[in-house]
C-alpha cells in the first residue's frame, strides 16, 4: 500500500514548470546556486558550419615576426557585454593581426556584432604608435569588460591590454587602453610593466628578460589586477613566472609585482595565465607549463591554481594541479578559462586550449573544451567546441587555435568561442566566432541505437572519444532516444564530419514521422567536425530521432537538443563515490513511490537526473519517469529509503548541493540529512536512503555528464 503523502502546494504542469524556470533561476541567485547575470533577451547559438567569419587576411599580406611560415592572425579575444545597459549582448572581438597598415604599423583591430555573432563589422583600430612613437608592433591582446566600479573605472568600461614593441622587438611593454563607448573609441590608460627583447627561448640556459601575455580581472577586494608572464627572475632560479600587478585607482598606476606561480627549478615555465572568479568567491587561474611533461617532450600541459581573492596564490613556488580527465587525458598550450553560470548546480568552469594530450603528454586531438562541474576540483570532462581548427598545424595553417578565448551570453545560456582557423586558400588563419548552447541536452551517437551495418569509430577528436560511421546504405540508421519536459519546438544541433568534399545529407525522422533533411557542408577531412541545425517538434517525455542515409556520406558525433526561448535543466548521472555505481529508480519504474537505489551502468534513462534549481536548493527529476527524488512522507528519521513522486511542493523533494574536493553531497532540505547508499553497500540494488553526516564516502557523489546518453 502506498503511504499517504505530505502535500503543500498544487502540482504545476510540466509546461508551467518550464515557463517558470527563468524566474526560479533568478531567485536561486540569492542561495548561491548560480551567479547573477544581467537580464537580457535570450541569445541563440550560431552553430551551423564552423562559426561565422570575422576577418580573413588577404593572401600575401601577412608577416611572421619570428621567422617561419606567416600565420595571418593569432590571439583571438572576445567579450560579450553584460554590464553596459542597453548594449548588453553586444560582442567585441580583437586579435593579433600580423598585417601592416600603410604606415608600416600593426594595430589591434576592433570588430563588433549586435546579432549574436552572426555578422561582424570592423569599427576601429587601436594604434599604439599614436601613444609611443617607436612602438609600432602589437601582440597578445586581451579584452575585459569592467564588471563593477573599480577605482576611477565605471562598470561597463572596456579595457584592452596588450604587449607593444618596436619593429626590431628589442623591448616589451604591457599596456592598457580603455573605451567608454562599447569599443567605438579608445584612449591610452597606462603601462603595466616593461621588459627586455621579445625573444622566445624556453631552454634552462635562457637569458631572456621579456614580459608577456597580460590578462585582467577584478579581485575580491575590488581592485583591478593585471596578470602576466615574467622572464626577469632567472637570478632566483625561476625560468619564467606568472605574476600580477594590482591597481586601486582603476589602472592609472600599478603596485608591486606578486608571483602566482614561480617554480625555482629553471625548467618549469608557466605562462599565458588567465583568471576567472567562481560563485563561492574564489578565483581560478589556468596557465600552460612549458618544458612539461619534459624538456624533450614539450607539449605545454595546462595547470590550474585557486585563490580566495585573486591575490593570494600560496605557495607561489607551486604550479598547481594539471587539468585532466578521469582517464589521464589533458590539454596543452595557450589556455583560456571562464566560469559560466549554466550547466550544473554551481555552473561550470570551461577551459579552451590549443590541443589535447593523451595520458603520456603527447599531442592527440583538440576539438573539445575541458569543463568541470565542481568549481575546479576532481576530474574534468569534455564539451564539444563550437569552432574547430587544425590543432597540430598539419592541415595548411600554423598557430591555428592559439590563444583563443571564450565568453558567455548576457543571459548565461550560450558560450561564444573566438579562435583563428586555417584558411586553405590563403594559407593564413581567419578569425571565426561560433557558439554552443550551454543548457542543451547532449546525446552521444555511439550510445544511440544503430543498425548492424553502421559502426562505432574511436576518434580522440570526437565528443566522448567516439562517433558513428558507415551510415552508407538505404537501411542504415542511427536512432536517438530523446526525452524533453514539454511538447513543443526544439532545435537539433548535429555535430558531424563529412570528408567527401561535397555537400551531404541525412534524412531525419521524429517519432516515425515523415523525414526532414539535414544538410552537412563538407569538413576539412574525416575527423574535423562542424555543426548543422534542424528544427523539430517533440512530444513531452520520450521521443525517437532517427538519422538515415541521404545523399553522399557523413558521420555522426553528438546531438544537442535545446529550446532557444526556454532553458533546459542540466542532466547528470550521480555516481556514488564509495561503490562507483549509479543512482537510479529501481527497475526503471515510472510509478509514484518507486524506490531509489544503485546499479552498475545500464545506459537506461532511469540513471539520468535533471538538476532543476529552486530557491531552497535543487530538485532531481528522474529522466525516465519525470518524477522527483524525495524522502517519502517528509520523514526525518535516519535510514528512510528515498523514492520518487510527482511534484508536491514539499521541501522533502528539495536537496541542498555542496561540492568539495571533486565530490558532492546532497542534503534533504526537509530533514537536513544526507543522500547515501545504505550501509555503504557496493552491491547492485542497494537502497538509497538518508542519514545524518558520517563522513563516509557513501554520502559523496560525483556528477557525470559526458557520454551519459
Write a short abstract of this structure.
The protein contains 1 helix and 49 strands.
Describe this structure in words.
The protein is mainly β. It folds into 3 domains: 14-31 and 569-704, Trefoil (Acidic Fibroblast Growth Factor, subunit A), CATH 2.80.10.50; 52-438, Neuraminidase (6 Propeller), CATH 2.120.10; 442-562, Jelly Rolls (Sandwich), CATH 2.60.120.260. It contains 1 helix and 49 strands. The protein has a 5-stranded antiparallel β-sheet with strand order 28-31-36-33-34, with no helix packed on it. Strands 1-26-25-24 form a 4-stranded antiparallel β-sheet, with no helix packed on it. The protein has a 4-stranded antiparallel β-sheet with strand order 2-3-4-5, with no helix packed on it. The longest helix is centred in the N-terminal third of the chain and has 15 residues, at 14-28. The chain starts with 13 loop residues before the first helix and ends in a 5-residue tail after the last strand. The model is unreliable at 1-43 (pLDDT under 50).
What is the topology?
Elements: H1 14-28, E1 52-55, E2 73-80, E3 91-97, E4 108-113, E5 121-126, E6 137-145, E7 158-165, E8 172-179, E9 187-195, E10 211-218, E11 224-230, E12 241-247, E13 258-261, E14 269-277, E15 283-290, E16 302-307, E17 321-322, E18 330-332, E19 336-340, E20 348-352, E21 355-357, E22 368-372, E23 381-384, E24 405-408, E25 414-422, E26 429-437, E27 441-444, E28 449-450, E29 455-458, E30 466-469, E31 477-484, E32 488-497, E33 504-510, E34 516-520, E35 530-538, E36 541-549, E37 555-562, E38 571-576, E39 582-585, E40 596-599, E41 609-614, E42 617-622, E43 628-630, E44 643-645, E45 655-660, E46 663-668, E47 674-677, E48 688-691, E49 701-704
Antiparallel strand pairs: 1-26, 2-3, 3-4, 4-5, 6-7, 7-8, 8-9, 10-11, 11-12, 12-13, 14-15, 15-16, 16-17, 18-21, 19-20, 20-22, 22-23, 24-25, 25-26, 27-37, 28-31, 29-30, 31-36, 32-35, 32-37, 33-34, 33-36, 38-41, 38-49, 39-40, 41-42, 43-44, 45-46, 47-48
